[in-house]
Automatic annotation (TrEMBL):
<comment type="similarity">
    <text>Belongs to the glycosyl hydrolase 1 family.</text>
</comment>
<dbReference type="GO" id="GO:0016787">
    <property type="term" value="F:hydrolase activity"/>
</dbReference>
<keyword id="KW-0326">Glycosidase</keyword>
<dbReference type="InterPro" id="IPR001360">
    <property type="entry name" value="Glyco_hydro_1"/>
</dbReference>
<protein>
    <submittedName>
        <fullName>Glycoside hydrolase family 1 protein</fullName>
    </submittedName>
</protein>
<dbReference type="InterPro" id="IPR017853">
    <property type="entry name" value="GH"/>
</dbReference>
<dbReference type="Pfam" id="PF00232">
    <property type="entry name" value="Glyco_hydro_1"/>
</dbReference>
<keyword id="KW-0378">Hydrolase</keyword>
<dbReference type="InterPro" id="IPR033132">
    <property type="entry name" value="GH_1_N_CS"/>
</dbReference>
Amino acid sequence: MRKFADIFKDKDFLWGAGTAAYQCEGAWNEDQKGLGEWDYFNHNSKLNINHTDGDVASDFYHRYREYIDLLAEGHQNTIRFSISWARILPKGTGQVNQKGIDFYNRVIDYAIEKNLEPNISLFHYDLPYELAVDGGWLNRKIVDYFANYAKICFENFGDRVKIWATINEPRYYSYCVNVVGNYPPNRHLDFQSYFQYQYNLMLASAKAIKIYHDLGLDGIIGVVHDNGNVELAPETKNKKNVQLIGDFFYNRQILCPALLGKMPEETDEVLAAFNCLLYREKDDKELLAAGKADYLGLNLYNRQYLTDGTKDVTKVFHNNQGSRSKAKEGIQIHNLFKSAFDPKVKRNQWGREELPRVMYTALCEVQRKYQPKLIMITENGHGGYEQADETGFVNDEQRIKLTAEFLKYLLKAKSEGVKVHGYYHWSAMDLYSWINGYEKRYGLIRVDFAHQLALTPKKSYYWYRDFIDQYFSGS
Ligand code: BG6
């Protein structure tokens, strides 16, 4: 029987790549899978600016063996993927779909056979439709619904899966759903829902973690957070306040409950500044305290660079259109804080900073403030338009260059004592992007969506394979 302790015995690091169910599986209505919120949204909403969907996606559902073979041949020793809640429980609660269980058993068993340690997220944005119409994460009952779903997963897969995450990016998910409004159900600048959503997500996460621990399974369970650190622009006058509110807004409302088992002490003060109120129940404190994460997953793409708020109206800036738009990523919140723009930092085609040294800054800050026992970089990578040659090969030098820099900073942090022991490149293969459909590519493996989903490893795939080899050979 495999043991968790054996994972890090021979090798001190997990090197792999990530995926998420809706983004890669396809088979949206096969084998009794229930309807997901994203299925419904993409099929029906005029706000689906991608004009496409995840119906087929990268067809991981049928071709998982091919993908796993390629990842193993790339010398990766782990794979991150998520479970589709609606595949296990088609209506979110109630009847379990055995065919969904069978599918994930096949994937898990095959990954293990190929020496890829499975790292599974229970929730990566794809809420079952029936729960979405019932208020989604704003309905407090979802805490129990999620706990029930998590328990079913632990009972069915927990004998073999040793690394779990409850929720992928509760903060960014809530931000897109409630503030930007580019994820269903597209609420815009609704801060009350932004905060409540995250609070309910963290309660659900804590409840699932407690259940996992109570079951006495051999393994670890964590939370995956986006970000890590806030940096203030030098012109900032009210440094203390911008840091306090900004760090709560981007990090602490997730990292404190996840790693310290409690909401930050500044919660009420910050909520009041937004004229918002968090609805809590009397046992919540106990629940959060009992559901601390064993490790932290960090999805690291960029920092939050902030400065003083102004009298300007609250507004969010988001680029869903790549180089067709000049918009940069950011927000201005009336009188509280706003994103600062550093002209010296290069931005990608989606208006996001490309600043690899934040890998180091974020890792060090998280280690210092929260002292997690283990950190894994659960996402990091580069999204962009890509052109393949006539053989399907992509010479993605830009991805290699950026990833090499990010990894240099990761290893620097590790050498200085940060307990980081895993890295998952985002993404394993080209897949559906929530706001860019199939235009923006992240994968190490090219998927030709126009021609029978032909698979071709990119230059970065080979570069990553050699990087892993060098790491383990100590050169
Ligand atoms: C992360 C998500 O936020 O970023 C992934 O966990 C996502 O699911 C990735 O694909 C890249 O996001 P985007 O918006 O650039 O496609």
